[in-house]
């Protein structure tokens, strides 16, 4: 018999916690789901009557929020109260890379996970299942267990407390989070307490076929998440490394990707060359993997994964060099339109977006950027480009926000496409090109332009991995 879950609390109303809890609430109307967060502004945005103001953009999320919010899905800052009520608590707080101290630049900062564990230990009552949703270093569950157990053994505690810790990493990709949550490739649950594993399995089996629910020990579950992200990132570095060779040899990366990907053993997805991977996970998780390997003396293994990160940085550096070279070696005072700032299409997330590094470098070279992204706010771009010190620098005139593609590209010397938004695929490039200052260049880092369909063959277009 598994424990009957009636009340769930999720700590962290972010890109993972928000959508995941919304989908659980929509499939489990008998369960009350409370998503709590320390960030008042974020919680207010989740509660905004107008779903256009939700803090994150994910296709399909607004519909679920409209259906469940206020019924069995609630967003609040009442962390303690909701922990006390919960039978099951997800920890879905951010786990950034450490910026200082031991392991800086590689190890994960577990500050928020530890803090969450302490709050749970203090306020939970009776038997509570604690589930790691955040991506964590292997053996973090032990840290959580130690903190929880230290409290539950405390004789002075007013309430009886007992905990089981499970690992249940989330594999959703932003931009298609709802699709991934509704129809996941697999659900992974790690842990040894059978009743708790069964209770969590029961929740997912409301909409996920049982044979897709995998159960493992805690450590294998934690390591699987890091490994999955490392493998995905490795594919992108692999295809990007070959894109450079294509440009040298006259081969075309898209054709190579199709030819290679039709081999069933390799598979066709995740073979799009581009400006390098971004997002909150890949770099952080590989850095963490490298740190772990070094810790266990596996230096060859850590060197191997380090190369995946190196190729990613190199891809961005070489793009900047190509842009500069094609524009007669100087981009100073030239107008460059940047199309797309998010790290991938269909999200307003800019964490580790290649656009940040590329834009900063172009500004350093003296270019004047006109940036357009359909979903990223100007304030976010300001923050990412460090425009908070506008007054002391000349950054204000180096970076102008545009509210449409037309506004950004008009009289530009170059366009750099950095995100594969659908909107860009529908642009009439021949008409746009005419509005640019000649000789103009279009740098299409994401292959959104179908060159074969263009009637005017005299447009200067450069695409990643396309040898001329
Ligand atoms: C997730 C995962 O949890 C992370 O491990 C993974 O690697 C990336 O994705 P994500 O949901 O994207 O994180 O992070 P974010 O959008 O920053 O949301 C985390 C939320 O937790 C924030 O809203 C933050 O305010 C909240 N938080 C953080 C708390 O409520 N309490 C804390 O103590 C710390
Ligand atoms: C990733 C994992 O896919 C997901 O399983 C995990 O839970 C979190 O990390 P996410 O970062 O949201 O998800 O998006 P993803 O689609 O994996 O893209 C990551 C980066 O790789 C983006 O910058 C994207 O543009 C880039 N990418 C992806 C490519 O450059 N080429 C590809 O073929 C695929």
Folded structure, characterized:
The protein contains 18 helices and 14 strands. By secondary structure, the protein is of the alpha/beta class. The chain is globular, with a radius of gyration of 24 Å. The model has no long low-confidence stretch (mean pLDDT 94). The chain binds uridine-5'-diphosphate-xylopyranose (UDX) (2 copies). The site of one uridine-5'-diphosphate-xylopyranose has 19 residues, from helix 9.
- Principal-axis shape equals globular
Gyration radius, to the nearest Å? 24 Å
> What is the strand content?
5-15%
Ligand roster: uridine-5'-diphosphate-xylopyranose
Largest sheet, strands/sense/barrel: 6 strands, parallel
- Tell me the strand order in the biggest sheet: 3-2-1-4-5-6
Can you tell me the residue ranges where pLDDT is under 50 for at least 5 consecutive residues?
none
Question: What fraction, in percent, of the residue positions are helical?
Answer: 40-55%
Task: List the total number of helices.
Answer: 18
Number of beta strands: 14
Q: Overall pLDDT, averaged?
A: 94
What's this model, at a glance?
The chain is an alpha/beta fold and 468 residues long.
């Amino acid at each position: 018999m598994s424990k009957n879950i009636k009340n769930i609390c999720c700590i962290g109303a972010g890109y993972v916690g928000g959508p995941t809890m919304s989908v659980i609430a929509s499939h489990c109307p008998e369960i009350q789901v409370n998503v709590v967060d320390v960030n008042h502004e974020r919680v207010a945005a989740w509660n905004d009557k107008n779903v256009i103001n939700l803090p994150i953009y994910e296709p399909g999320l607004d519909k679920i929020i409209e259906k469940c919010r206020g019924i069995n899905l609630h967003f609040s800052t009442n962390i303690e109260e909701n922990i006390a009520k919960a039978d099951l608590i997800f920890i879905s707080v951010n786990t950034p890379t450490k910026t200082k101290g031991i392991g800086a630049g590689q190890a994960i900062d577990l500050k928020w996970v530890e803090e969450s564990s302490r709050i749970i230990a203090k306020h939970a009552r009776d038997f509570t299942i604690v589930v790691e949703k955040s991506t964590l270093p292997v053996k973090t569950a032990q840290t959580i267990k130690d903190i929880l157990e230290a409290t539950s053994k405390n004789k002075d505690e007013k309430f009886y407390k007992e905990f089981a810790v499970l690992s249940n990493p989330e594999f959703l990709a932003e931009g298609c989070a709802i699709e991934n949550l509704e129809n996941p490739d697999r659900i992974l649950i790690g842990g040894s307490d059978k009743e708790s594993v069964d209770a969590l399995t029961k929740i997912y089996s409301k909409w996920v076929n049982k044979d897709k629910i995998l159960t493992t020990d805690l450590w294998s579950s934690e390591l699987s998440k890091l490994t999955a992200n490392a493998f995905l990132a490795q594919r992108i570095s692999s295809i990007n490394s070959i894109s450079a060779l294509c440009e040298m040899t006259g081969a075309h990366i898209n054709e190579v990707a199709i030819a290679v990907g039709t081999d069933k053993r390799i598979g066709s997805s995740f073979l799009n060359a581009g400006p390098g991977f971004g997002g909150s996970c890949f770099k952080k998780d590989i850095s963490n993997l490298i740190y772990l390997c070094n810790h266990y003396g596996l230096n060859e293994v850590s060197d191997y994964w380090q190369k995946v990160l190196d190729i990613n940085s190199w891809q961005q550096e070489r793009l900047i060099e190509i842009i500069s070279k094609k524009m007669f070696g100087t981009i100073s005072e030239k107008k460059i339109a940047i199309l797309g700032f998010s790290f991938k299409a269909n999200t307003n997330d800019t964490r580790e977006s290649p656009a940040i590094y590329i834009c900063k470098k172009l500004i350093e070279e003296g270019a004047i950027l006109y940036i357009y992204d359909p979903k990223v706010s100007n304030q976010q771009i300001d923050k990412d480009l460090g425009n908070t010190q506008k007054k002391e620098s000349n950054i204000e005139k180096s970076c102008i926000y545009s509210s449409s593609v037309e506004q950004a590209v008009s009289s530009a010397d170059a366009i750099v496409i950095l995100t594969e938004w659908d909107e860009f695929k529908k642009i009439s490039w021949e008409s746009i090109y005419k509005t640019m200052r000649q000789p103009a260049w279009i740098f299409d880092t994401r292959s959104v332009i179908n060159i074969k369909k263009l009637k005017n063959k005299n447009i200067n277009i450069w695409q990643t991995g396309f040898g001329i």
